[in-house]
Amino acid sequence: MIDEGIVRGLIAVISLATFLGICWWAYRPQSRERFERDAMLVFDEDDRASGRVGRKSERSGSAREGRGAAA
């Protein structure tokens, strides 16, 4: 039979390999652009929900006044 110490050692090695794999995936140079783009998704969702699609459309002053009066 397999000793309990060997099983714990294998679990530790597998856990370490998984951790190092995740670190490699997260910090490799190819992932940087994707993660920066994904980090901005929260702000893009707010723009879509408020009706503003792009950052160039800065009509928010009149739109806010209209919403404030209706609410």
Question: Can you put this structure into words, describing what you see?
Answer:
The protein is mainly α and 71 residues long. Helices cover 77% and strands 0% of the residues. It has four helices and no strands. The longest helix has 24 residues, at 4-27. The relative contact order is 0.05.
- Helix and strand element order: HHHH
Helix fraction bin: over 70%
Beta-strand level of the residues, as a percent range?
Answer: under 5%
Tally of contiguous helical segments: 4
The end-to-end distance, rounded to whole angstroms, is 73 Å
List keywords for this structure.
71 residues, mainly alpha, 4 helices
Topology:
Elements: H1 4-27, H2 29-39, H3 41-49, H4 60-70
Q: In a nutshell, what does this entry contain?
A:
The chain is an all-alpha fold. It has helices at 4-27, 29-39, 41-49, 60-70. It is built from four helices and no strands.
